[in-house]
Each structure stands twice: as structure tokens, then as C-alpha cells.
């Protein structure tokens, strides 16, 4: 028979804490550390035979480390081209004479005499025309806003019709002194239509007045701008083109060096003066009249007089054609061989001018005074 399992026996361990003195604790700790430290190997005995000593030399200092040098990549440069010097660019060539300039208005005392003296010396052909006509006069002055308003009202109208509409416009505003941007903006298109101003011209007048009211344009600013900047600013106004700006600069501001290249009468005058077979184009006018600088405004004034004398029975005749014919800077193409222009461009190119600059713009103020 299997023996019955033995009952588990329990072992009771009793731990007795015996207080140790400080000296005994120190001794016990020292013994424990000595048992845990590894055993040191015995030191070999020193040899009794002397060993000859070798001469010692101080080690040489090692060189400092070299820093890596970075060489920038070489830029491939193109070889310079040798410029050929033309005879005109050589040092022996005579330098071009600078173009004279004039910034004083033509209404300045003595400025017309200076202009006529320059034109006589620069262009003997024009001198003949100057001798047969009275000198121009640029005395009247009006505010730029009033003059620009007149320019818009007189567009594409005969002189008498334009004068009639302008007089009614001034009366509607309350007099010339009341023709200011705020007054023009208060005039409605129906009111302007009753005095003969078209709807399109009404929008032009309002656009001009708004640019004044917004500070884009001002009378003081217009008077201080140079010709090129003034042309750019004024052509921003709806209804004011290059011809209107040129007329304004000559007859209102009295600028001395303005050439209205798009004016048909001035182009005809240049054709008559130089005996040209064809009417010069606007692009050719600058070079043909370059010798008039800086008094091209006065030269243009005499072109109007030349055409006026040609169409009237004044008896004035230019020298023979053979003695005054010149070559154009660019050949004028034959109209029969030129390609046909689109219809809108043809209408713009051959659009007639209904205002005589001599009688229509210079005397606007005096004619209005005579009406009243």
C-alpha cells in the first residue's frame, strides 16, 4: 500500500538583530570590501644587471593640419567682339551740333523776334514767307480748363457754328469765369443738348471735369508739365486727341516748339514750301521741319499763312520750284500701289478739318467779347 502523503512542515526562521558598535561595523565593512576586490598580481623583482641607456631625442613637432581650399568654378566668358569704327564715329568726325532749346512762352516780350531771327537763319525758304507776312501775336491767355472746354465744343464744327454753341454754353454756366469743373458736372446731357451739344461731347466735357475734380489734372499742373508729359496726360481725356492737344499747346499755352504733324494745312504748307510732289506724311514732318527747332510753333503758323495766301488772290508767289525742291527723308509711296486701308482708318485719315486754327482758336476769346 502506498504510504500516505506527508504533511507539509513549516520552517520558522527567526532573525535576531544584534546591535553593533561603530567600530565593529567599520571593521565588518572593511572585510567585505577586501573580499570583493580582485587579487593583485605580485610585483616582479627588479633586475640587478644594469641595462645601457639609449640617447633620447625630443620628438619633432607634427605639422599643422592643412585646411581644404575651395577654388571657385571658372566662369566661361564670351570673347569680346571687335567693334568696327565707321568714319562717322571716328574722332576726326565733327560732333553733331546740339539742338537749341527754348522754354519761354511765345508771349514773352522779345521771344517772337528771337524766333524769327532763328527761322530766317535756319531755313532761307521759310525766310521768304516770313518777309511777306506780319509776325504772329500770342497775347491772349485763358485758363487751361476753359481752353480745353472750348477745344471740345469746337470739334468738327465750322467756326460760326462753334462760336454760336460756345456762347450759349458760357451763358448756361453763368459767364466765362463760371466755367469750372463743378459747374460743368452739374450740367445734364439734356441741358447741353438744348444748346446744341451732342451726347458724345457732353460725355467728353464731363470726363474732363471729373479728371479735374479727382486731381488727375489741374491748371497749375498743366502749366508746369513739359510738352511730352503734357501730351500724355491730356490725351487721357476722352475726346481730346493729338490735334486738339497741339492746338491747345500753341494757342493757349504759347509753347514755342510744337509741330502739329497731323494738321492738314501745315502738311500742305510744307509741301508748297519745299516743292514736294506729294503731301508729306505725318511721320516725315518731324525730319522735314527739324531745322525749325526750337520754334516749330512759329514755323507751323507760317504754313497756315502760306496755304491761306495760296488759296486767296494775295499775289504772293514762292521762288521757282527748281530752286527749292528737296528730297523727302523717306520716299512717298504711290497711292495707286499702296494697299487699301480698312474703312475706319480711311475715314480717320481723310477726315476734313472744319476749324481754321488761325481764325478759329486764336480769336475765340475776342470773338466772344464782340458778341456780347
TrEMBL record:
Transmembrane segments: none annotated. The keyword DNA repair applies. Residues 58-67 have a biased composition (Pro residues). GO terms for biological process: base-excision repair, AP site formation; DNA alkylation repair. GO terms for cellular component: nucleus; protein-DNA complex. Residues 153-308 form the HhH-GPD domain. Keywords: DNA damage, DNA repair. GO terms for molecular function: alkylated DNA binding; DNA-3-methyladenine glycosylase activity; DNA-7-methylguanine glycosylase activity. Residues 1-111 are annotated as: Disordered. Belongs to the alkylbase DNA glycosidase AlkA family. This is HhH-GPD domain-containing protein. It comes from Saponaria officinalis.
Amino acid at each position: 500500500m502506498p504510504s500516505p502523503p506527508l504533511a507539509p512542515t513549516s520552517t520558522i526562521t527567526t532573525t535576531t538583530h544584534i546591535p553593533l558598535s561603530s567600530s565593529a561595523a567599520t571593521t565588518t565593512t572593511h572585510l567585505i570590501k577586501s573580499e570583493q576586490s580582485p587579487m593583485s598580481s605580485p610585483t616582479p623583482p627588479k633586475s640587478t644587471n644594469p641595462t645601457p641607456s639609449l640617447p633620447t631625442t625630443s620628438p619633432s613637432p607634427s605639422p599643422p593640419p592643412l585646411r581644404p581650399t575651395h577654388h571657385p568654378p571658372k566662369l566661361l566668358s564670351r570673347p569680346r567682339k571687335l567693334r568696327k569704327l565707321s568714319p562717322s564715329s571716328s574722332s576726326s568726325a565733327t560732333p553733331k551740333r546740339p539742338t537749341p532749346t527754348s522754354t519761354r512762352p511765345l508771349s514773352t516780350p522779345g521771344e517772337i523776334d528771337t524766333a524769327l531771327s532763328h527761322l530766317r537763319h535756319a531755313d532761307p525758304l521759310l525766310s521768304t514767307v516770313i518777309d511777306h507776312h506780319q509776325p504772329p501775336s500770342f497775347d491772349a491767355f485763358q485758363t487751361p480748363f476753359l481752353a480745353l472746354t472750348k477745344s471740345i465744343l469746337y470739334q468738327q464744327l465750322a467756326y460760326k457754328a462753334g462760336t454760336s454753341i460756345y456762347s450759349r454754353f458760357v451763358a448756361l454756366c453763368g459767364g466765362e469765369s463760371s466755367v469750372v469743373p463743378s459747374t460743368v458736372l452739374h450740367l445734364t446731357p439734356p441741358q447741353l443738348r438744348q444748346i446744341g451739344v451732342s451726347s458724345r461731347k457732353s460725355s467728353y466735357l464731363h470726363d474732363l471735369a471729373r479728371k479735374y475734380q479727382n486731381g488727375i489734372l489741374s491748371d497749375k499742373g498743366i502749366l508746369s508739365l513739359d510738352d511730352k508729359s503734357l501730351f500724355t496726360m491730356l490725351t487721357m481725356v476722352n475726346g481730346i486727341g493729338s490735334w486738339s492737344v497741339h492746338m491747345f499747346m500753341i494757342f493757349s499755352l504759347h509753347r514755342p516748339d510744337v509741330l502739329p504733324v497731323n494738321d492738314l494745312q501745315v502738311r500742305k504748307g510744307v509741301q508748297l514750301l519745299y516743292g514736294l510732289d506729294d503731301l508729306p506724311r505725318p511721320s516725315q514732318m518731324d525730319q522735314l521741319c527739324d531745322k525749325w527747332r526750337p520754334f516749330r510753333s512759329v514755323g507751323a503758323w507760317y504754313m497756315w499763312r502760306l496755304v491761306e495766301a495760296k488759296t486767296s488772290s494775295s499775289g504772293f508767289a514762292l521762288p521757282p520750284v527748281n530752286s527749292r525742291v528737296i528730297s523727302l527723308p523717306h520716299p512717298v509711296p504711290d497711292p495707286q500701289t499702296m494697299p487699301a486701308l480698312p474703312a475706319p482708318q480711311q475715314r480717320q485719315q481723310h477726315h476734313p478739318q472744319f476749324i481754321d486754327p488761325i481764325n478759329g482758336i486764336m480769336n475765340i476769346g475776342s470773338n466772344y467779347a464782340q458778341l456780347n
